[in-house]
Amino acid sequence: MYTTQAPLYFILLIVFIVIGIKVFYFIIAVIGQQRYVKRLRKSKDETEITTLENERKRLAADIHDELGPLLSAAKLKYSEVEVFSTDDTKLLNQGHLLVDEIVSKMRHIAKDLMPTVLFYKGLVFAIREFINHIAAHNNLKIDFSPGQMDELTEFQALHVYRILQEIIHNTLKHADAAHLKIVMYTIDKKLIISTVDDGRGFNYKTMVRQGGGLGLYNVQSRTDILNGELQVKSKIGTGTNFCITIPL
Fold first, then answer.
1. What is the largest CA-CA distance in the chain?
2. Which class is domain 139-247?
């Protein structure tokens, strides 16, 4: 009986080994395909975001170099208009105020499109300036606590700035939060960003299954471009915590 079953066991062993090898290579192929798709998506996102940033830069330059001087010239022309009554003076002053308001809004739009302060005064200063602007026009209280920071490249700083912009905007639009805390520091050649709000929260797993919102997609895309890792903890009624780790 032993001599009869031995070849059968040997054949079964070979079959199992062959199947195991095929399964192993199949798993490797699937993993390879997933990595290829991820690299392809990352490359696509990077191209799209780079194009977007270049377009923002162009628009900011157009606003600053073309529309700004035109409005200043219009205001100068206003000053040359002759007035013959107090009503004319009132209308002229209203025109001046309107032009000043347009210039102010255009400067803010240009700054939002391309935050030059980021490159001249650094990431922390630029974030503080953006937060101060948000605080002046909204009820959301933002507590920004930067710790020890290693120097970032302009490429890294711009994406981190956009990530925090997106998180703050999402908190304003969707979270119905009263308070947002932002912590940012570097340790062991890694940049750590943590944000916590006391808003309504959301079901993160459901959001991911449904494709996620545009804001969440932008945060994930920019994190991927920086070869970072994004973790989101959120439940309905408990607020939202973003934790981003970026290698430097």
1. 123
2. alpha beta
CA distance readout (Å), 223 to 46, 157, 211, 217: 11, 12, 17, 10
Q: Are 199 and 240 in contact (CB under 8 A)?
A: yes
The per-residue DSSP string of 170-237 comes to HIIIII--SEEEEEEEEETTEEEEEEEE-S----HHHHHHTT--HHHHHHHHHHHHTT-EEEEEE-TT
pTM of the predicted model, to two decimals?
0.70
Q: What phi and psi values does residue 233 have, to the nearest 5 degrees?
A: -120, 115
Domain ranges of the chain: 48-113, 139-247
Element (H, E) at 129: helix 123-137
Under a CB-based contact definition with an 8 Å cutoff, are residues 63 and 113 in contact?
yes
> What's the CA gap between 189 and 147, in Å, rounded?
14
What residues form DSSP beta bridges with 144?
182
- Which pLDDT tens digit goes with each residue over 123-155? 999 999 999 988 888 889 999 999 888 889 989
